[in-house]
Amino acid sequence: MLPNLTALRAFEAAARHQSFSKTANALGVTPAAISRAIRRLEDDLGFDLFDRSHRAVSLTEAGTRYAQRVTEGFRHLTTEKAEQTPGRPTVTLDVEATFLRQWILPRLCEDSFRDLQLSLNIRTHHDPPRVISPTADMAIVWGFADYWGFKRQRLVSPRTILVSTPSLGISTLAEAAGGTLIHEADDHWWRLVFSEAGLPYPDATPTITLNRCDLPVEAARLGLGMAVADDVIAEYELKTGALVGVDGPRLDSQDYFLMSRSNVSVPAQAFAGWLKDQAHDFADWQKSL
């Protein structure tokens, strides 16, 4: 007996979101409906797809394998539909939201993108996804990961950079102790920076801790202090002069990777090539910092 299509759709979404409540919000149903659909699918298949705890769900080993098969099945269906749809070709990209806003969107204004003569369907995620959507031609993820059916290529390699608004007149790390230190999540990167510079960490200096990697850049732009950020996220502000780099150690961070399907369409290949060209230009700019 073939699995119920509605249950498969619920499972595929739950495998990506790793949350029944997020899946329910995405599909416009209740978490209980998602749970029931997946339970019925598990009964039909004869094995558990998820490990369930009081507060979270996670794919079992068998569930991960099945998610890969379902993802590829949906992918074939959507590819056939796209091939029969006339008009300008569309490339579907899954990408981390901050990287999209700070690095990709400013580049879509360039003639080199318009010359591709294609449409983009862009969907965002905030964390590295467990499974890439079956309707995606490609994805950009932060951090080293493997996804079934996709080949991985390094796209850009961020480096930490100290930034401040020009109005504060800060030019060296030593001057940071007189102001406010801004960072994401915790003071880990600031402590590394001071250690690499051979300077004591100024524990008495006030700090602002933010929970997204783009927010320290925005806080620094507003003149709230000096931020430790990465040059991928701060690129636009540095190029426009809204922020300036401050002398100090540059530390490597985790890379962004382009995940492409092995059977990707010609328009998607062209877009991937354009992204790689942009990444090459970015690397040249990095060397000038």
Q: What's the alpha carbon Rg, rounded to whole Å?
A: 22 Å
Overall 3D form? globular
Tell me how many strands there are.
12
Count of discrete structural domains: 3
Low confidence ranges:
none
In the CATH classification, which architecture of the largest domain applies?
A: 3-Layer(aba) Sandwich
| Overall SS class | alpha/beta
CATH superfamily heading of the largest domain: Periplasmic binding protein-like II
CATH fold type of the largest domain: D-Maltodextrin-Binding Protein, domain 2
Task: Offer a quick outline of the entry.
The protein is built from 10 helices and 12 strands. The protein has 289 residues and is of the alpha/beta class. It has 3 domains: 5-76, Arc Repressor Mutant, subunit A, CATH 1.10.10.10; 87-156 and 254-287, Periplasmic binding protein-like II (D-Maltodextrin-Binding Protein, domain 2), CATH 3.40.190; 160-246, Periplasmic binding protein-like II (D-Maltodextrin-Binding Protein, domain 2, 3-Layer(aba) Sandwich), CATH 3.40.190.10.
Give structural notes:
Helix 1 packs across helix 3 (31-45). Strand 1 and strand 2 (57-59) form a beta hairpin. With 289 residues, the chain is of the alpha/beta class. The mean pLDDT is 87. It is globular. Helices cover 40% and strands 20% of the residues.
What key attributes describe this structure?
single chain, 289 residues, Arc Repressor Mutant, subunit A, D-Maltodextrin-Binding Protein, domain 2, 3 domains, 5-stranded mixed beta sheet, sequence-specific DNA binding, LysR_HTH_N, LysR_subst-bd, DNA-binding transcription factor activity, LysR family transcriptional regulator
